[in-house]
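Workshop exercise sheet. Pairs work together: one partner reads the sequence aloud, the other fills in the structure field after running the prediction. Swap roles for the next sheet.
Pair: D.N. / O.F.
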Amino acid sequence: MAAYCARGHPRNSKRRTEPRTWRRCSSRPREECELKGLAVLVKKEVKELLRDPKILLGTILMPLILMVAMGGMVRISTTAMMEASANVSVAVLDMDNQPLSQTLVEFLQQAQNLNTTVLTGCTVDGALEKAEELGVRVLVVVPEGFTHNITSGQRGTVYVYSIMERGTMAEAMGFSTVEGAINVFEEIVKAQMISTGMPGVDPEVVLNPIDEKPMTLFRGELVEQSPDQLVQLIMSQSMLPLILMIVVGTAMSMAATSMAVEKEAKTLETLLTLPVSRMTILLSKLIGSTIIAVIGSVSFM
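Structure field:
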């Protein structure tokens, strides 16, 4: 027995079974060994996650559940938009008080899906305050000179103010409904101008006699954009945090599941014996889980 130990067969056997990566790390600086070990552990983690049906099932089920939930939210939002466009409250301030502007006001009063309130004797700021008091979300302002500009071969301007609080599509539907009514009135004006045959008038003005200026009062701040553009901007800014939240949540769930599987399979103790810190082991699981989560998220985009 002593002669057997002197030859060192068990020691040599242990050296042969030790992983080559960890043998090389024994003669290198600790930081380099940690990085090398991290790369190896991340590679191992990705391979194990791809082979584990439980993990893959989780990465598939979670996006599917999210897609179903988001589909339900879109359906609710669509229903709310349809209800919002069925009866839109709109206020009109006619500062021109000429035949063509009065015809526009009468047209809006007779338009379907519009509940029109005519405001008189106030400024634009006063009209905005009055509209908020009445709970009206759209204000149409016909400025002075509207009729004169159109009849003299120039474009007449109509300001459409949309009053928003939450920045939702349901609030933007009111603007779209009023915009559609103004576009119909514009077509009527086009037909009348062309039928009367105005000599010396720019054809572009004949085709587009009304220059609509969309304005949105969002949380007390006036923005020179239509509510549709504002809602799209808000939604585009909120998509990236939502995607990041999904990726981070999926990665953390997969990493926790992977740790539980390692402990159940009695391989966690083996990982702890490697010449790397526990933080490196945990970081490798998080990185590997994040890679799989990103792949799963991209596949459902």
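Discussion prompt: The chain has a mean pLDDT of 78. What would you look at next?
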